[in-house]
């Protein structure tokens, strides 16, 4: 079988390096690089990507062997139809390992046509370390430190020319990622006593964006790779699979829209003045429904998200939870929210992705606090009555953790939380069990027993779960 290279695949396209990308992992290759590849084809973007390995143990060597090429598999449901698409991605023109070749890394700063810097270096990647002081000819330890070195080299090479600034769009999954990255760079400039003109150039000529990214990327399809290689006709070591859905919300200066015009060519990229409502939409509808279905599904002995959504009783329960209880709490147009929810349900039913409820159950207490509880409290305030389905998810969560305390199942969470439920398990009265859980400020950041309607509703459902199955409880809920 042929090794994938530009000669064996007859790829002749060559573009100037306009994009530097910190990160060579599955997500950026299935998300940002795919978009750049589409823009090169449809939008005359004509942009090559230089991939920088952000950690010492990386995989740019493998990318180099395949001359930047790899196949992306996009698979899932679209309006009820199964789609299975394959695309050869060819926008990566250069790879750099700064740990082995610092000169080549800093030389990227000299590219006159450079216009964009992207990153995905994990949530912990955007940090400032006051001890990160590289010696002469040394490489900074942190990603923001490396970015500072690169931008400082550009500033010096072009003598502070204001036309040589770039757009910087991080994809790390933290709130206000662009603001935090910019502040870290400014902090390093101060720590390293760099020319004050550099900070001025950073502020006036460079454009940082805050982002929200959304695409499920299972990554390398190990279980079916032999068949996929036969279909492709290449021994591709970097095949990456992803769902069809994609969304990129970018909040930042208007200049970013010209530097990365993906929204003009049919890609689901939105430039907004405030990303907060879209983050709320994702956290509450996608993540919130994920977290809500975990305990309910596991109590019903279901294994995957797909099984839960297709279940006779739990499937309608999840849909009603989203459309009738979550959506009313979000400040965006209802049609836009319903369309997003439709896509979420279809994503949950993707036959190519096996997403196990048990894997989502990791740290369910903190997830419920962030993803579900704010919706419950907003609904209570707006409607003056309890959201019955979300409260059913809450009561089911308590039931699930008590079963873990009884040794019936295994859950992974903060040791303090698991120890607390051990004490609750020893309480014989169900009403007192619920009261103890809702009163625990360590779990929820507040005493939820002060919300009398919430306390009574969750208690009533919890008592019902003690005497009937979750299926029966949900059926009773639907009939009422």
Tell me about this structure.
- With 480 residues, the chain is of the alpha/beta class.
- The chain has two domains: 2-272, 3-Layer(aba) Sandwich (Rossmann fold); 276-479, N-(1-d-carboxylethyl)-l-norvaline Dehydrogenase, domain 2 (Orthogonal Bundle), CATH 1.10.1040.10.
- 48% of the residues lie in helices and 14% in strands.
- Strands 6-3-2-7-8-9 form a six-stranded parallel sheet, with helices on both faces.
- Helix 5 (143-157) crosses helix 6 (177-191).
- The chain is globular and about 70 Å long.
- The N and C termini lie far apart (61 Å).
What's the helix and strand layout?
Elements: E1 2-3, E2 17-22, H1 26-30, H2 32-42, E3 48-52, H3 60-65, E4 70-78, E5 81-89, E6 92-96, H4 102-107, E7 116-119, H5 143-157, E8 167-170, H6 177-191, H7 196-205, E9 207-208, E10 210-214, H8 225-232, E11 234-235, E12 240-242, E13 247-251, H9 255-259, E14 269-272, H10 276-299, H11 305-310, H12 314-326, H13 334-348, H14 357-360, H15 364-371, H16 373-383, H17 388-405, H18 415-425, H19 430-438, H20 441-444, H21 452-467, H22 470-479
Parallel strand pairs: 1-11, 2-3, 2-7, 3-6, 4-12, 7-8, 8-9, 13-14
Antiparallel strand pairs: 4-5, 10-13
Helix pairs in contact: 5-6, 6-7, 10-12, 10-15, 10-17, 17-18, 17-21, 19-21
Counting DSSP H or I runs of 4 or more residues, the number of helices is 22
Shape: globular
Beta-strand content:
5-15%
Overall number of strands: 14
CATH superfamily of the largest domain: NAD(P)-binding Rossmann-like Domain
The CATH topology of the largest domain corresponds to: Rossmann fold
| CA-CA gap between termini | 61 Å
Helix content bin: 40-55%
